[in-house]
Each structure stands twice: as C-alpha cells, then as structure tokens.
Design goal:
The structure is a homodimer of 450-residue chains. The first copy, chain A, folds into 3 domains: 133 residues, Alpha Horseshoe (MgtE N-terminal fold); 113 residues, Roll (CBS-domain); 170 residues, Orthogonal Bundle (Tetracycline Repressor, domain 2), CATH 1.10.357.20. Chain A is 64% helix and 6% strand. The first copy, chain A, is built from 22 helices and 6 strands. The model of chain A has no long low-confidence stretch (mean pLDDT 87). The interface between A and B is large, with 121 and 120 residues.
C-alpha cells in the first residue's frame, strides 16, 4: 500500500543490483508506484540508478522521470538519445512532458519533439513551451474535458468518451461556445444523472466560475485555488478562450516550494539546496548571507572603535554588547516575520502603513518596557545603577527602532517587487546589530557624561 | 469572477450598513462566494459584521461560518441560540459542521446537536467529534460515495444517485465488501463508460490504492497526499472498514499552517498570531523568545565579565564581539534550517547522523576558512596581527561549533518528539552567542598570553 524506503530495503536492493538479480527487482521494485521508484532512484548512486532505471519500461520511465530530483533526472537523461527520451515522455501528461524536456538545451528539445509520433501531443508540447515557467501557462496541462454548449447529453457522453482516454483525472467538464470561449462548467456527477436529451446549455453552471489567465503568476494561482478550495482551475487566454487547466497537485508543489523558499530566506540560505547537494553547492548557497553578517560585524567593530574612549573609561559597557545586538536582531526578525506572512497571504493591502507601524511600535513599547525593567534589575549586579539605566534605556530604544525597521523593510522590499522574505533573514539582524550598537554607546556616553 | 476586497468597496459597504441599505448589500455582497463574504466580514467591526451576517440565509451563514477567522466566528456564534446554530450548520459537510461546533463548550454542542433534525447528519457529527483534531479522523468527512463490489453498473448508478445528493465533489467511488471493508476504487469516468450489466467487482482497481488510518497524524496525511498526488484519500479504521475520506482542500490548509508554524518558530514567534490580533496577544507571543534572547545576553555579559582582565589589557578584543556573535548565530541557523527541512520532508531517516555532521563540518570548514581569511586581512587595520590571528582563528572555531550544534539540536529535538523547527529560532542564536563569546575570549587570551 504505502511504501517507506528503509535502510534494509535499500541494502537488499543494492545487493540485487550488484548481483544483477532481476527477479528480486521485478518483484520488489517494479510493483511500486512511480513516485516510490523515484524516491528509491534518488537514493542510489549513479551506476545503480542507471541500472535500475533501465529495468523499467518506457511509460514507467517517463512517469518516474517526472518525480526524480532535478540533478538525478538531468544525469539520467544524458545517457539516452533524443529518440529514447521521446518514447519515455510520449505518454506523459503534456505538462509533465514539458517539465522533463524543458531542461534540455533548445536543439535537443527540437530533436526530441521530432521523434514524437503523436502529432496532437507535439502540438500541445510546443504550445506549452511558449509559456513562462512561473505563470499559469507554465503550470497548465492540455489534458481536460470540454463540451460544446449546444450538445445534448447523449452526444456529449460519446464525445467525452473519446476525450477522456487521454485525461487521467476528469474533475469537471468545461463548457465552451463555438469559438472555444469558456462559458462555465458541468460536473461529471450532473452529467451522469441528467436526461439524455437535455442540452448542455441547460445544465452547465456559470455562477461561481473561477478561471485564471495564462499570464497570472503561479503564486497567485495557488492563492486563488487555495482560497476557493478548487481541485482544478481552467486557464483562459486574453480572448477568454479555454487553453488549459491546472490541477491542485501541481499547485501543492508551488505552495510547498514557496514556503520552503521563505523559510530558507529567513534562515539565510540564498539558493535552493537540499541536504543531498554537495559540499561546494551548500557552501556557495550560504556565503552571501555570511558575507553580509561579516560586513555587519566589521561595521559593528568600527562603531565600537569610535567609542573606544568611552569604553576605556567604563569597561562595563562592553559587557552588554551581546545583549543589545541579540535583542535588536530578535525583535527585528519578529516584526518583519509578521509583515512577510501577511504579505504572503495577500491580506496586507488593506491595513495602512501607519496603522501597522503604530501597532508594531505599541508591541515594542510593551515588550521593551517589560524587558528593560528586568534587565535594569539584573545589571545592578554588574555595576552602578547608572550602568543599569544606560543599558535598559538603550535596550528599550533599540527594541523600538528594531520593530520599526522590521516592519518597514519588508514593506519597502515588496513595494519594489523584491521578495519581502529577504528581510527576515540575516539582513535585518545585521542592520539592527550596527544600529543597536550605535544607539547603545551614544546613550551610554550620555549617561556617563563622557 | 474573482473578487478582491478593496478600500473603496469596504467604505461603500460600511456606508450601506450604516444606512441599512439592504438593496446595495443584496446586489453587491450576497452574489459573492461564501469565502469572499467571509473575507469581508473578517474586515468589519463587530456590529457591522453582525448586521451583514444577519442578511444571509441559514445555508449561506453556515458556509460563511466555516471560512471566518476563528475569533470572528466565536464572537458571531455567541449571539445565536443553539437552535439557530443548528439550522446554520445543518447543510454543511460533516467535517465543516464539526469544525464550527467543535469550539463550543460541551453542553452547547449537545444542545446544538439535539436541534438538528436530520438523524443521519447527527450520527455523522457525533462520530466525527470522537477523533482528535490533528489526526486523519479529525480531518475526514462523512460525505463520500461507496459501492458494493457485487453490484452491477446499472444498480450502482441508481444507488450512487441517492448518495451523490449529499456529496458536493465526488472524485472517486470507493468499493467495499459486505462488511464495509475497503477493497479498492473506481473512477466516475470508468463507471460512466462501462456496460450496464458489468459487475463492479470486475471494474474496480486495487493496485495503487492508498488509504490512511483514522489515527494517522495530519501532517503525515498531508505528506501522503502530496507524495502520491491525491485529491482525496479514503480513511479506514483498524479493521480496514471505510469510515470517511479526506479531500485535498483541507490538506492544503494543513500544509499552509505547518509552513506558517515553521516560519514563525524560525522567526521567534511562539503562538499563532495574525497581524490583525491585538497588541497584548502579539506582545505575549513574542515574550518567550525575547526572554531567551535576554537570558543569552545576560549570560554573554557574564562571560565577558569573566574575561574582564584580558579586555582591560587588550581593549581591541571588545571590538569583535558583534562579529563573533553574528557569525555564530548565522551559521547555526543555516545548518539547522537544512536539517529541519529535510526532517519536514521526511527524507532524513536514511542518512546517518555521522554523515550529516561530517558534511556540515566540511561546509563550515570551507566557509570558515574563506571568511576567516578575509577577516584576518581586515582586522590588520584595527590593530596588531596577533589580534587578527586571534579573531580569525576564533571565527573559524565558532563557525565549526555553530555548524555542529546547528545540525545536532534539531535532530535531538526530533528524536524526543519536539518540533525541530524550534531550533532554527532564537534558541540556536542565543546558544551560539554565549558559546562563541567563550571560545573567542579563550582563544584571545591564549594568543595574547594573558
């Protein structure tokens, strides 16, 4: 039923591959679902993966290809000719076929297409290749069921029977006019239970019809399908003609990727990396943010140098450097995370900027007062009450500034069409470190009258 | 078609509510989809929300209730009697009905149920109330279509017609034996195109049948549906009997919530808060992590006090405190984020602990060497080459330690069934701050022979 890849299974499989034990493989691998086979191949090394992949027939190879990790697929495809690739993808859904060959270089794409015998499939693939990856057009597939409004139910069933051969999951029948303009939809359930003579135009619904245009950004598509609980959404062109449909499984991938990306940005990873990537790739993905952190640290050092005279008079001021930088960073990240999430949900346009800033400032004042008071009490153990006052007033001020910057930066980034999640990462922490140190030492100097 | 809530619309609506302009409301609100109406009501204040909600008929009230923000729904429900609530939820899908009344107190749930006239609906609701919220049982609904294996197609269509009245989206027909044990599934498409006399037992598929048990954790349900690209999954009890189904729209919500939670944990927010929550709630959600940050800052101060003698001899050591803490924090968060993501994807069980640690250490060595070299060059401007050496050797050591801790902590948390995403938040930053300072000053003392 549901397959879990275990260490034992993997060892047994690797043994069978070593000893070319096709019988074991046939019984234990080929019976699995394509996505499970893909998980297994992802976990094998290059030669083992190739051997196992070669045991699959063309159709299964195609299905497995769509589920493989990008780098594994790329490696595997290199060992096949354009003709072989054409055979593998021939029976895939159009969107999956495009996903597989989309990564090849343009000449090879042409070659692969020239080897596909089904002319209709070729046309669908060529059409889909036109659209940008991250738009509704890039997500959609050509497999859907459509009915003309003027058909009666019995003719409709005959026509649909032909169309349905290519469509794995039907969900909904889209109803179009003679110009292919989308009019509405009809559930299979409704068709199934209707009288044979009834015209489709009397059956279909147009109220609550949601469609998306080919150019819509794929995150927006995800938001629409999520909001309206859709399992499939029809895609129309500028003239309103039906050109494809997007199914929820592809959108779930978009949602996951989006969430992963935000999480990675917040954690200071600048490229998509998986724990299976190699050391160089992982290192490279981390360097940009670490460099920003380093520059922040150097700027921080520079600020402290500027106040060296004060520190040599009141060395205890140095004790609380980590407190100030840590709190500035934490408050900044918290404030920006809230803004980033409401931007991602798309419900940020209503509240005005000033209202948001006001609220964040209020929160900062509440938390700042509370923490400053506690810190004041604690610092008394470290030195004079002047020190305590200097530290707690600084902490309060830094908290307030960090909250304001944390709120503003993602909003500004969003305004300039830059992913606001960038703000939640080391960027805001670094900025607040430097700013916090400056505020801290300035206030410290004032309190000690230096 | 697709509705966007604009400022202008909201102002016009508020005016209409003030002037009790039911005609405008009827034309501009009641025609919208329930989820859009819910978005509008969420944006209104208490009295306006109540007025608008009262304009809806019972069925629409029920649908809108399921889409409202939790606190808005709770507030609205307070102004209705148990009988009125019963009428509102009577036509909802069983899972939505349970979601609405699940938040009421036990006595009121009993009262509401006693007012529902449809006995079957009552039984379904009572059954669903037994399951934990965050399990497959808590996610499932009682609306699904099932067929007995020994029915012929024509009888099946008659039976399904009855069942289908209550089921909004059919997707798949589940095939059961006489004991209600799930045998397999049958697509509506296959049924539609089959001969009237064929037995269901000859039509249904059992290969690739995926089902989940009632007790399965809802994140695991999401993982299964995502992996196998399912739009609906049947839920079975311990005896293998079919007891419900879960549809993808509910699972998309689980995926989103899970991603939001991870992002919030990584950003130091400990409770589910929305930007619409009030100042106290937001402040409270941030206090736990800020307190940890504060304790870290105080511990850091304590570490520095311990090395006060050294600092007074080489004051320049204080300059690089922010650099060390920032880099330790950043590296730690990066390392733990990678581990958290691979744990969330469920592909972490294969790679052994040592392999992971080895790889993270390699990455840390590469990045540590690179950054330490740059920092060494820069520190020469700030003082002696001994200082440069001390800072860059410390930086390298801290990077390595932070990477090891960043990798270990989420794995340890996961082992003890604590959400590993906790590690990516201020927790790891704070730990690395204190540890980093200790390493830095120890190495500094050694280099300067203090």
């Amino acid at each position: 039923m549901r397959f879990e890849l275990t260490k034992e299974y993997l060892e047994k499989l690797q043994e069978s591959i070593q000893s070319q034990n096709s019988a074991w493989i046939k019984e234990n691998v080929l019976e699995l679902q394509d996505v499970d086979i893909a998980v297994i191949i992802n976990a094998l090394d290059r030669d083992e993966a190739e051997f196992l992949f070669n045991q699959l027939d063309d159709d299964l190879q195609g299905e497995v290809l769509t589920d493989l990790d990008d780098d594994v697929r790329e490696r595997l495809l290199k060992s096949y000719s354009s003709k072989e690739i054409a055979e593998q993808i021939e029976n895939l859904d159009s969107d999956d076929a495009v996903d597989v060959i989309g990564e090849l270089d343009p000449e090879q794409i042409e070659e692969v297409i020239s080897h596909i015998s089904d002319r209709e499939a070729v046309e669908e693939i060529v059409d889909l290749l036109h659209y940008e990856d991250d738009t509704a057009g890039g997500l959609m597939q050509k497999e859907y069921i459509k009915a003309k409004a003027d058909w009666p139910v019995n003719r409709c069933i005959i026509e649909l029977r032909k169309q349905a051969e290519d469509v794995e999951k039907v969900f909904t029948i889209y109803v179009v006019d003679d110009n292919e303009v989308l009019l509405g939809f009809l559930s299979l359930k409704r068709l199934l239970f209707a009288d044979a003579k009834t015209k489709i135009s009397e059956l279909y619904q147009d109220k609550n019809m949601i469609s998306v245009k080919t150019g819509l950004d794929n995150e927006e598509v995800a938001r629409v399908m999520e909001k309206y609980d859709l399992v499939a959404v029809p895609v129309i062109d500028l003239q309103g003609k039906l050109v494809g449909r997007i199914t929820i499984d592809d959108v779930v991938d978009v949602i996951k990727e989006e969430a992963d990306k935000d999480f990675q940005l917040a954690s200071g990873l600048s490229e998509k990396v998986e724990s299976s990537s190699n050391v160089w790739k992982i290192s490279r993905a981390r360097i940009p943010w670490l460099t920003i952190g380093m520059i922040g640290g150097i700027l921080g050092a520079w600020v402290i140098v500027g106040f060296e005279g004060g520190i040599s008079k009141v060395p205890a001021l140095a004790f609380f450097i980590p407190l100030i930088t840590a709190m500035g960073g934490n408050v900044g990240v918290q404030s920006s995370a809230i803004v980033v999430q409401s931007l991602a949900r798309g419900d940020a346009q209503l509240g005005s900027l000033w209202k948001k800033l006001g609220k964040e400032s209020m929160v900062a004042i509440v938390n700042g007062l509370l923490l400053s008071t506690i810190v004041y009490a604690i610092t008394l153990f470290f030195g004079s009450s002047t020190l305590g006052l200097a530290v707690s007033v600084s902490l309060f001020t830094v908290t307030l500034f960090a909250a304001v910057f944390g709120t503003l930066i993602p909003l500004v980034l969003d305004r300039y069409k830059i992913d606001p999640a960038l703000a939640t990462g080391p960027f805001i922490t670094t900025l607040n470190d430097v700013l916090g140190l400056f505020i801290y030492f300035t206030i410290g100097m004032l309190f000690f009258g230096i």
